[in-house]
Amino acid sequence: MNWLSFLAPSWAWLGLLALPLILLYILRIKRPDLTVSSTLLWSKALADMRASTPFQKLRRNLLLLLQLLILAALVLTLMRPVVQAKATQTHAGVIVIDASASMQTHDNGGPSRLDRAKDQAKKLVDSMRPGDRFMLVSDGGGLNHGGIGFTNSKSELNSEIDKIKPSDTPSDLYESLLLAATSLRGINSDSGTPRNDALTAGKVWLFSDGAGVRVPDAMNADNNATGGGATTTNSLLQFVKIGESNHSVGITQLSITPVAKQPRTYEVFVGVQNAWDVEKKVGVVLALNTEDNFLPGQAKTVTLPPHGQGSITFESVVADPGKLFVIADPTNDDFPLDNTAYALLEPARKVKVLLVSNGGGVLENFVKTGVRVGAFDGQIIAPAAYAPGFGGGGQADLVILDGFAPPLADMPKADTLLIRPPVTGGGAGAVNVGGFNVTSEVENPAVLRWKREDPVMQFVELGSLRLSKALVLEKDPDLVDLVSSPESSLIAYKDFGSTAGGGTRRYFLSFSPQIESNWWMDPSLLIFLQNIIEQTRIRHYIGLPEMLSSGSAAKLWNVGDDKGGGDGPVRITAPDGSVSVIQAKDGAAEFPATDKVGFYTVTSPGGGGGGGGKTATFAVNLLSSTESNIQPQSLQTASGAPVSESPSIATINLEVWPWVASAALAILVLEWWVYHRRIA
Predict the structure, then answer these.
(1) 652 has pLDDT over 60
(2) Apex CA 497: angle with CA 495 and CA 498, to 5°?
(3) What's the CATH code of the domain at 501?
(4) Is residue 627 part of a domain?
(5) What is the pTM of this model?
(6) Could you tell me if 38 and 117 lie in one domain?
C-alpha cells in the first residue's frame, strides 16, 4: 500500500480560512458603554479599553482548537483523499518476465523494455503483504531461463529480478507460462484448495511486449465465465504490456550462395522488414571482416511499405573468404539488434565420398560417374588400404563400406553407409557390427513397408525389389527404420556422437544390392545413394555457410584434436567475449548456448597433447520477423478471449473522504457541546 494522495488537491487553498478564524480570537472585543455603580469589579475590562493595540494575546481555547480541526477535516474532505493499493488480492502469484530479443528495444531512446519490466515487477514485489508469496520466472529463449520458487522474501525477489539479463533469442514464453500455471495449481493443491478451483486463487503477472507470446490452454481453464452471451476476459493472467514504439527496420532473412564456376564470387540475398507506420527507404551495405570495412560497390537501398517487407539481392559479391557483415541503416531505430546480420564467406566445396570396396559393380560406377559430372568428390580404395578412424580431419564426409566393416573402435569418423558387412563370431548372441546388433540371417525376406516421408527415401520406389537373403537386426529404440520386412529392418540408420544428430550418422543396408537382390538394376538405388549424399551435405553444411538462429544448438564436427577425432575439451568464445568449454566425443560436440548474435570462435587443442590445434568460426543471427516487429502486441487466450492488460502495475483508489467528513461532523458536535456547557 502506498502513502495518502488526493484526487482534488487544489481545494487545499481553503486551508487558509484558518487565518481569519484565528484572527477572530486575537482581536479585542469592542464593548458597548454602560453606566455602572462602581468600576471595582471591572478593572480588567478597563485595562483592555486603555490598550493602544486592537489585538490581544492568544490564550488557550478549546473551542478554537475544535474549530480548526473541523476546518481541516472539511478541507481534506473536499480534496478527496485516497489510498492507492495494488490491484491484486492474491496470496500467491507468479511473476514472468520476458527477456527475449525484442525486450532490448529502447522506446524513443529511453530505457530498455527489459529495464522497465524489471521496475514494474519490483513495484509488484514491494506491494506484497505479510503471508504473500511470489515465484519468479525469466524467459529469454534458448537456455536463457532463470528465477526462483515461491518465497515471501522481497529482498530475494528483487535481487533475482536485478540479475535478469537480456537475450538475443526469440521466445514464445509458452513453456514459462505453462510452468507458472502448473506451479499455481500445485501450491493451491498443497494448501488444500480443490484442484478444479486452484487457478482462481493466484495470478500470473506477465511483463512483456507481447512479441510472439503464446498463451497456453492452462491459462483459460478456470475463470472464463459467460454472461449475456459474451466470454469474460481471463482473470488468471495479468498482462503488463511494456513499450509503445514501432520505430524499427530489421534484417529478417539472409542467404549466401556461391556462384557456380566463379571463384570467390557469391550471391547475397537480404530480406528486410519495416515495423514503422510510414514508408521507409533503407540502405543496406556489406562489410568484410570488420563492420567498417565496406566492400566496394556493395551498397543498395530498398523502399519498404508501412508494416511491410522487401528484399535486396547482391548478385555478384567478389571477396576472399572471411566474416561478412550485412548492415541496415540504423538511423532513428529503437531496436538496433536486428540491423546487422552475420555470415561466413567460405570457399565452395563438394561432398567428399570414400568408397571402400573390392571394386567393380554399380557402386564403383556410381562414384566414378558422380566425380566425372562434378556432383561430388570421390575416392575408391580397397579394404586393405583402410586405416583406423579413416574419414576424420576432412578426409571424407561420407564413407561407403561395401562388404567390409572394421572393428567398432576403428569405424570412420564421418557419416557411414555399411552395405551387407560380414558377420564373424557370435554364436547364440547378437554380434555388434559398426554399432548395429546382428542376430541372424533370413531367407527371401519380403519388403513390408518403407518410410517414404524420410528425406533419404525421397523418390525411392521399392515395389519391385526382390531379396534372396538379408541380415536380421536386433530391435533398438535408437534405430530409425527406412525399409522393413516382417522379420527385421532391411535398411536403417542410427546417430552417433555427443548427442543424437550431433555427431556422425551410420546407415545399415542388410543385403547386397548386387548379389542378394535385384536392386542394382533399378534406378531407385542410385536415387537412394544420392539422397544419402545430399543429407550428409545438409547435416554438415557442406558448401553452404553455417548460419544458426540464436538459441539453436550449434553442432560441431572435426573437433577434439587436430586430426578431427578423439575426445577432449573444446573452447567456445562468444561474441561478447565470454568463454565456454565443452567436451567433444568422437570428434563431435554440441554447443547449445548461442544466445548472442555474432561470430563464435571454436578452438580445439592440438592432438596428442602437442601444440597447434585448430580453430573454426560459426555465425549466429536473430533473423526473426516476430522479434523485429517491435510494436507491442495484445494477447489472447487459446479460446480467443482477450487477456487483461495494462501499461503498468494497476492501482485502485480507496477514497477515505467519507471517513474524514464523519470525523468533521463528530468534532462539530463536540464543539457545540463544549460551547453550550460553558455558557450554561
Answers:
(1) no
(2) 125
(3) 3.40.50
(4) no
(5) 0.66
(6) no
